[in-house]
Every structure is written in structure tokens, then in C-alpha cells.
Amino acid sequence: MKIVFFLLLVANLALLPLLQSLYPSVTEPERLARQLNPERLTLLDAEPPPRPADAAGTKDAAPSCVDVGEFSTSAAERFEAQLSVLALGELPSKRLVRMPPQHVVFLPPQANAPAAGRRLLQLRELGFADSAVIRDEPSRGWAVSLGLFSRLDLAEAHLEKLRAAGVSDARIAEYPVNSARYAYRLSGLDAAGEQRVSELASGFASVTLQPCQ
Known about the structure:
Strand order of the largest sheet: 2-7-1-8
Order of helices and strands: HHHEHEEHEEHEEHE
Shape: elongated
Strand content: 15-25%
Number of strands: 8
């Protein structure tokens, strides 16, 4: 058995030089040089190159939403007319902003200035010294104001005093006549659209623009 093992070892040693001559060892550059069609190979980096920061930010920028207000009725009509020419992606939503009302106690409009003056004199003789002729409201021209109140119950109490004194045509109404205020919400705006809306809103007094809450 030992003789067989010794003969196999001698045979392997004799074949080793022959195998080395048939398959010579090569280094890595030589191995690449021997490849077929090496121009078809593409070397890949370990990690992909990062996206430019500005391109990524532009692509991922979310549309914005802004609230614009508050507008009087007439100002809201003008704002809507100018807003329509901007050709925004989405229609704005409009809401009525409830303002704390005030209440005026007054006499209905008189026929003319002399008639209003006579009623004013009568009221002052009855002890209602705070009365005054309304001149700055076209819908109540030559009416006579008998007091402005922040609470309705106070206005009603004053009205009862007037009726007790014989002034039967006094009444209560909201003051001013058109105190409604409106606000708009515009969503889906890109940066350019938000800038155009901001420039448009700046043309209206006391109107602010802020991100949607």
C-alpha cells in the first residue's frame, strides 16, 4: 500500500511542470486584455451619482395654498375680476367672514335737509342729545341717528326709551349697512402663481395673504 501511495506522489510531481506550461498564470490587466469584445463592457460605480439639489427641489416642490382677505363686498368683486385673468389651475373658494356687528338706533330718512333738522331739534328737546343727521350713507340719507351700540340688548333698551317718549318711528339696524367681509382660499399654486396672487392682493388696502391653516 505504501508503494502505491509513493508511486502516485511521484507521478503528480512529474505532471506539475507540464500543467504550468500549458496554463501560465496571468495578472488582472493581462486577463482583461485577453477578453473577447472588451468594448462591450461597461464599468458601474458602486453608488449612483446624487441628483443636483436644485433639480430635486424643483421636481419635489409641493403646490402651495394661501388665504387672502378680508374684502368688502365691492372690493371682493374687483378682486374676483382681476383674479380671473391669472388663469390659475384651480378655482378659489370664497367664504363670508362674520364681523362683530354694531347696531344703530335711527329714524328713517327724512324728505330733505330741513325736515331732518326739524326732527333732530325735536329729539334734543326730548332729552336725546346724542342724536345726529346721517350724511355719509346714501341709503340712509337724511335719516337721524339716535345712537350706536355694540350689543343688541343695549340698542333695544334705548329703543324702548324713545318709544316711551313718543318717538314711535325709531328702529334698529346693523351698522354700517354693508359690513360683510369676504376671504378667499387659493390652492394648487406654484411659486409663480403665488407671486402673482401676492402682487394682486397688495393693491387692496388692509388685505393680507398667509399660508392656509
